[in-house]
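To whoever picks this up:

The nightly regression suite flagged Cobalamin biosynthesis protein CobD as changed. Nothing in the input moved, so I suspect the structure step. Input below, exactly as stored in the fixture:
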Amino acid sequence: MAALAALAAVLLDAWLGEPRRGHPLVAFGRLVKAIEARLYADRRGRGVLAWALAVLPITLLAAGAMWAARDASPLLAAALSAGVLYLAIGHQSLHEHARPVADALDAGRLDDARAAVGRMVSRDTAALDASQVAAAATESVLENGNDAVFAALFWFALLGAPGAVLYRLANTLDAMWGYRTPRYKRFGWAAARIDDVLNWVPARLTAASYALLGQTARAWRCWRSQAPLWDSPNAGPVMAAGAGALGTRLGGAAPYHGVWEDRPVLGEGDAASAASVRRALSLVRRSVALWISVGLVIAAFRELA
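Regenerated output under the current build:
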């Protein structure tokens, strides 16, 4: 039933995309800001407390709702699970953000491409050339394939709807607090580290999926040699394997807050282009199909057993 619920959630996401109004994560964001306003202090302990108050009550509420739904009807529980997972993933959103970048690059509208990729990444985009814009979009698609899709699917498979809720809220807190800035270096420490832990296994499964469905030998080689050089323990494997699978060069220097930062090179082959953005979207889509197919096969074997 869980595999069918996951399939239903992916189909709902493809059909409806993210809700334009009333997304629960918007309300969660307001809650997080209120908790931060009350509890902020430049201490790790306060960050741990704030994380627990933001995430654990909602996760427990989801677990209670699922328990009640299963007690009432397995079909109701499956429908609720599919609805929760639909709200936790953002596969269609990746396409909605990345396609305009590729379309603008194909049409030679560099300023439009810069504006579109600026909605996907945190780096400065005004100084990027066409290849750098394409690289930024491709990196974002590959990394967010894990963060916005596969990690949520993993925790859903492991812990059901409460697992998907736990992961999505923790990942959102990392996006809000997990920065190494003076304000969040200590307070956001727990948010960043917990997100690293929750993403460790999914990131490597995502990287393996990219490798299997792309240029496999090159992807494994890039994963082994380049991922350890990246500062993120999870983004490194995902983007190195993804870049290798695409036969594209990513990484390298990028501007943040007016300063160009040196970053390791990821992948091998041609410079990034509009085509690499589209191939990255295709790679994520095929990986989603692989995960859902594997889940359905495992579910079928369990039923036979």
